[in-house]
Design brief:
This is Toll/interleukin-1 receptor domain-containing protein. The protein has two domains: about 180 residues, Toll/interleukin-1 receptor homology (TIR) domain (Rossmann fold, 3-Layer(aba) Sandwich); about 130 residues, no CATH class. By secondary structure, it is α/β, with parallel strands linked by helices. The strands form three sheets. A six-stranded antiparallel beta sheet has the order 7-16-15-14-11-12, with no helix packed on it. β1, α1 and β2 form a beta-alpha-beta unit. The protein is globular, with a radius of gyration of 21 Å. The two termini are about 15 Å apart. Helix content is about 30%, strand content about 25%. It has eight helices and 16 strands.
Length: about 325
């Protein structure tokens, strides 16, 4: 039976903050599903009523872990009677001795940590770029905690748990999987900067059935090699029309150059992917950084957009098979 993880978060009032928190929470949910966890997302937070109460009560009571995404808004709603977060907080207090509750905050935002969580293992993560290797240590500690069958609610020191539960070989294997599985972004469009040589050069965008595996290697200078790991791929030189393309019919057919295996992309060049489910995504290389000291630190900045995407919602994430 899969181990259940319940994720609680608050909807933000400001659209930009709300998108950041939701995108991070959805990324975290997909990442945990890659590890085989059953993830319950608080999809009904803003909808009061019996459905909300039943969902929260069942979710918290049946989950092995509860992850609380602590933001300034979460802290305020935790103190406001009648909000979904307040109701969850009361349930958490009732179950605080039987459930392992892990607060997650944005890096540097300890001011948003409620006093209720003091003394607990806190995971501070980069919300804007969750796939960033800046998160690798904290993600490793989080996965180590969630996978530890010997864990008790009184065990709050991650380093002790890691040393006691994993021998050296298993630790190295877990660390490798932790890093490789981070190389994805599930949102249908955005700008991502990632170390393109990690995970054997693969970086995934989107979620099935609109998922695309991109593949990269170093060429040098302001260019990069890109490879075909989907059904069809095309190169577009100097992709100046990227911003106006929203439908497949907007793609400039005359500019498409198909390639079966690999091609060179310079800054400003574009790429079109067609996956096995006949979804189409477009990309544009914004920047290439090649590290002279450590090639694995080399990064590419990619702007991408999945055309005609299925809306990514929390219930879509929960029902998604990874």
């Amino acid at each position: 039976m899969k181990k259940k993880v319940f994720i609680s978060y608050a909807w933000e009032d400001a659209e930009e903050k709300d998108q950041k928190v939701k995108s991070f929470t959805q990324w975290l949910a997909v990442y945990l599903k890659k590890w085989g966890f059953e993830v319950l997302l608080d999809v009904y937070e803003n909808y009061p009523g019996t459905k909300l109460d039943a969902f929260m009560s069942e979710g918290i009571s049946t989950s092995r872990f509860v992850l609380c995404i602590c933001t300034e808004t979460y802290l305020k709603k935790m103190q406001k009677i009648g909000t979904g977060v307040y109701n969850e907080f009361m349930l958490l207090k009732e179950n605080s001795y039987s459930k392992f509750i892990i607060p997650i905050i944005e890096t540097g935002k300890y001011i948003h940590l409620p006093s209720f969580f003091e003394g607990k293992f806190v995971s501070a993560l980069n919300f804007v770029e969750p796939y960033s290797q800046d998160n690798r240590k904290k993600i490793f500690e989080l996965i180590s905690t969630l996978r530890d069958e010997t864990l008790s609610a009184d065990s709050v020191e991650p380093q002790t748990r890691i040393e006691n539960y994993y021998n050296d070989v298993e630790t190295f294997k877990l660390l490798a999987d932790t890093i490789n599985l981070m190389n994805f972004e599930c949102q249908p469009e955005g700008i991502v900067t990632f170390q393109y040589l990690l995970n054997d050069g693969d970086f995934q965008i989107g979620l099935a059935p609109m998922d695309f595996t991109t593949h990269w290697s170093t060429r040098g200078g302001n260019s990069i090699y890109s490879y075909n790991k989907v059904q069809k791929t095309f190169r577009i030189h100097n992709f100046i029309a990227f911003d106006v393309i929203r439908r497949t019919s907007d793609i400039p057919i005359d500019a498409l150059v198909p390639f079966k295996w690999g091609t060179t992309l310079g800054v400003g060049d574009g790429i079109v992917w067609v996956n096995k489910n006949n979804f189409i995504a477009i990309g544009k290389v914004q920047n290439v950084y090649v590290s002279s000291e450590d090639e694995l630190e080399s990064k590419v900045t990619l702007q991408y957009r999945i055309l005609n995407p299925i809306d990514i919602t929390d219930d879509f994430i929960m029902n998604e098979e990874v």
